[in-house]
Amino acid sequence: MAETGIARKTNTLALVGFIAAFVIPIAGLVIGIVARRQLDARGNSESGRGFARWAMIIGALGALAQLAFFIVWVSLFATALSNAPTLG
Question: Are 28 and 21 in contact (CB under 8 A)?
């Protein structure tokens, strides 16, 4: 553990994963998992477990939301095509 008064370095991947989770959720999820593994490695004194955890949570929820949106969009598109007037 770090001494009192000395700031620990934040894991870069944890921070990048947290930011990426808002833009590209699946990337944030993967980067968050990699960052968490780095942080859990023996002898690692970096901070950022919270960033990695939230990158995984936000990334997973965002990916599920994108999947649901895609399913709804495909369903509506297929319905629109099936109800389209035919030519001829």
Answer: yes
Quote the CA–CA distance of 25 and 22 in Å, as a whole number: 6
pLDDT, tens digit (0-9, with 9 covering 90-100), for 6-41: 788 999 999 999 999 999 999 999 999 999 999 999
Rounded to whole angstroms, the Cα distance separating 55 from 49 reads 10
C-alpha angle 5-43-30 in degrees, rounded to nearest 5: 100
The phi and psi torsions of 61 (rounded to 5 degrees) equal -65, -40
Q: 45, 8 in Cβ contact below 8 A?
A: yes
Question: Which residues contact residue 68 at a Cβ distance below 8 angstroms, ignoring those fewer than 6 apart?
Answer: none
Distances (CA, A) of 32 to 3, 16, 62, 64: 26, 8, 13, 16
* Residue whose token pair is 């649901």: 68
